[in-house]
Amino acid sequence: MKPNTTPPLAEKDQLHPRNPHRAPYDFPLLSKVSPELAAFVRPNPHGSLSIDFANPAAVKALNRALLKHFYNVEHWDIPKGYLCPPIPGRADYVHYLADLLAESNGGVLPPGEEITVLDVGVGANCIYPIIGRREYGWHFVGSDIDGVAVRAAQQIEAANPALAGAIEARLQPARTRIFDGLIQAGEVFDMTMCNPPFHASAAAAAAGSQRKAAGLGTGRGPRPVLNFGGQNNELWCEGGEASFIRRMVQESGRRPRTAYWFTSLVSKKETLPGVYRALQTAGATEVRTIEMAQGQKKSRLVAWTFLSPAQREAWRKTRWADSH
């Protein structure tokens, strides 16, 4: 099987066209929406309003304002030290998944209430389900190996009427498993998504955090300030993203009809050849690679399916029939 990659129209340096975060942050508006943000807003050296992105409290306040303004989430919090992700890049993944879903359905995006998505590694922040629910009306199961993260995601869902009944946060009891022991008998998903741990060891994660802190000017001292935080399981796993995604591919191959599309973010371009080999071994019938970018930061998502053309047509007729 030769991977069928998406040909880039041009070298991307911007967010998805439907991503509402393409414009610079409107700090006066966001501060009005969420007054706690105002305490962190200051003119930067260029004379524009901004925040100190090296300050975890400022980043958290910005996220709260963005979630309130763009996603109708009034109450959002995470436990201390847990990942507080940059929202614009997270939104891009969701919008490109919507494109993939529409392409799989004759150019028509299926009705949101019909679509169920599994977010592997939902985290305490619950960002992907929040965005997917608000933008497209999807239903989510969010899995995590961390009980604290699962409870935090459950609390976010319970505290916001806009998310009521739309997100089920579920504990993955086996730390070395992804789908095994999590997906219930007869359960199917239209898509799965995952932002896998990037680093291959705790030492590599610490070194990466040190480099990032130095770039933000917070690297003084033995322990840098982590502006976006992150628990160990959020930042690293044995073998890094390459090993994690290969395990995901193997487990997906054992349940080929569980999802129409399995997908994962891939941060490192050099990870791709190993992922393609694993997909060929697992018997994927189609593989898509979709490039993404936010300024200088380049990433991509890889999507794969095991369904035959006849099985895909049956899936569309039984699950997405109302869209035609």
Automatic annotation (TrEMBL):
Segment Disordered: which positions? 1-21
NCBIfam families in the record: PRK11727.1 (NF008725)
Spell out the subcellular localization from the entry.
Cytoplasm
Instruction: Provide the reaction this enzyme catalyses.
Output: adenosine(1618) in 23S rRNA + S-adenosyl-L-methionine = N(6)-methyladenosine(1618) in 23S rRNA + S-adenosyl-L-homocysteine + H(+)
Q: What is its EC number?
A: 2.1.1.181
Please give the name of this protein: Ribosomal RNA large subunit methyltransferase F
Q: GO terms for molecular function, please?
A: 23S rRNA (adenine(1618)-N(6))-methyltransferase activity
Q: Which InterPro entries match?
A: METTL16/RlmF, rRNA_lsu_MeTfrase_F, SAM-dependent_MTases_sf
Q: Which domain of life is it from?
A: Bacteria
Annotated family: Belongs to the methyltransferase superfamily. METTL16/RlmF family.
| PANTHER family linked to this entry | RNA N6-ADENOSINE-METHYLTRANSFERASE METTL16, SAM-DEPENDENT METHYLTRANSFERASE
- Tell me the organism: Hymenobacter negativus
